[in-house]
Amino acid sequence: CVTIFFSDIVGFTNISGTLLPEEVCDMLDRLYLKLDMLADKYELFKVETIGDAYMAVTNLIKDQPDHAARIAKFSQEAIEAANNTMIKESDPSMGCINIRVGFHSGPVVANVVGSKNPRYCLFGDTVNTSSRMESNSVKNRIHMSNDAAQLVQIQDPSIDLEARPPMEIKGKGIMQTYFVALSQSRRPSAKPMTDTAVRFMLEEQLSRTGSKSDGMSLRDAFANSKRSSKHGSKVLSTQGSKVLSTQGSKRQVSPMNAPSHLVSSPTASPTGSKRPSHVAVEIV
Known about the structure:
Blueprint: E1 2-9, H1 12-18, H2 21-42, E2 45-50, E3 53-58, H3 67-83, E4 99-106, E5 108-111, E6 121-123, H4 125-135, E7 142-145, H5 146-155, E8 161-163, E9 167-169, E10 173-175, E11 177-180, H6 195-209, H7 218-230, E12 242-243, E13 281-283
Parallel strand pairs: 4-7
Antiparallel strand pairs: 1-3, 1-4, 2-3, 5-6, 5-13, 7-11, 8-11, 8-12, 9-10
Helix pairs in contact: 2-3, 3-5, 6-7
């Protein structure tokens, strides 16, 4: 089992239409130099870059039992690095780069195909699903499949996850996916719900449950909610996603059996122009 990382730049088409080709090249070079340094730090194997897309993998060329959690941590720093990379150094008004990130864990086959410019390629549905996680992510968020989320929980329970509503993924059908939760330093301050919004929610809830007939009036329920919010016992969020970890409790994700074994791929990647004689390795 490997974990594959994909990222791309938000608004890259518009950026490319604004900058000269050499300026696009310079922007990508500055970004990829940072990502390459992070890849070395976390010992990721960089597969390739295609335009603004960056692809890397863990648990490929050596055993990395924390491969999914390792990608999650790399992704957090990759977003930070991108957000500190200017689109055009001579024009700060254009701002900094924003990226989308996605990853998935599963089996692949690593092989060299063809004879021109030989290099390792990864094959299998895991590659496609990883790419879909990236394309269905959002700006500066880390999106992962259910399989990857379960591995992250096993490998590093300190990484907080947020469940997304089940969504249609092209070629895959309905999937349950997750975000890596925003860290406290990056989390936007939540806007408190207005009294009108709270009153509306309580009225809807009471009408569904029939609590009014049990002696609780809307006014009593509203007053209780105000007191609870004041003392911090309950937080009403408008973020639209379910947080799998809250203060004072551990997150819960559906249990999953961890892989019983990890199979490493070749110990080294091809560096010369000569095609290696044995290159097909299945990572399961």
